[in-house]
Design a protein that fits this description.
The chain is an alpha+beta fold. Helix content is 22%, strand content 27%. A hairpin with a 5-residue loop joins β4 and β5. It comes from Blautia ammoniilytica.
């Protein structure tokens, strides 16, 4: 009986050694993080102290990509009220920006990490035929959005996917 027990233990021990020798196990834990999509607006702006009819006001807004990934950007611009728009000549938009039907200006190229766009425009000009006493204060609001460039061929398709869930 003792020999039988020793024999069984020997067979089990040899089986365990063989099993251990013929098998292997390893675990790798992969962490996947989504890249952050972040941009901000910078601008050069010199407001006039005493605006006069025909004045040219320096205002150059552009977008900077703070992400680690390439992004497409778009900008929407609007006056705080209709009086501001009525006091100004139409904005002269830089050729790298294209206005679409949704009212946004889309930048032609994807921005790599750390890159910035050309300014959307460089100046605001008050209409020369204004009456000085009728010039009223206004704000020109510049709003931007961005979307990752990976998987898209241009800004319009990237934002279409964002806006409507389709490419």
């Amino acid at each position: 009986m003792i020999l039988f027990a020793l024999g069984c233990m020997t067979v089990l021990g040899a089986g365990a050694v063989t099993y251990t020798y013929l098998t292997d196990d390893d675990v790798k834990q992969n962490e996947i993080r989504a890249a952050e999509n972040k941009v901000h607006i910078e601008e050069e702006f010199k407001p006039p102290e005493d605006p006069q009819p025909g004045d040219v006001i320096v205002k150059k807004p552009w977008v900077v990509n703070d992400s680690k990934i390439p992004v497409y950007v778009r900008i929407r611009v609007h006056f705080s009220d209709s009086r501001g728009e009525l006091q100004c000549e139409p904005l002269q938009i830089h050729r790298k920006w294209n206005r679409q039907e949704d009212g946004y200006y889309y930048y032609d190229n994807a921005l790599a990490a750390g890159e910035k766009t050309e300014p959307l425009f460089e100046r605001i000009q008050l209409k020369p035929d204004l009456i000085k006493e009728e010039i009223c204060p206004f704000d020109l609001i510049v709003y931007t959005e961005s979307v990752q460039a990976y998987g898209f061929t241009n800004a319009e398709t990237a934002f279409a996917a964002l806006d409507g869930g389709k490419e």
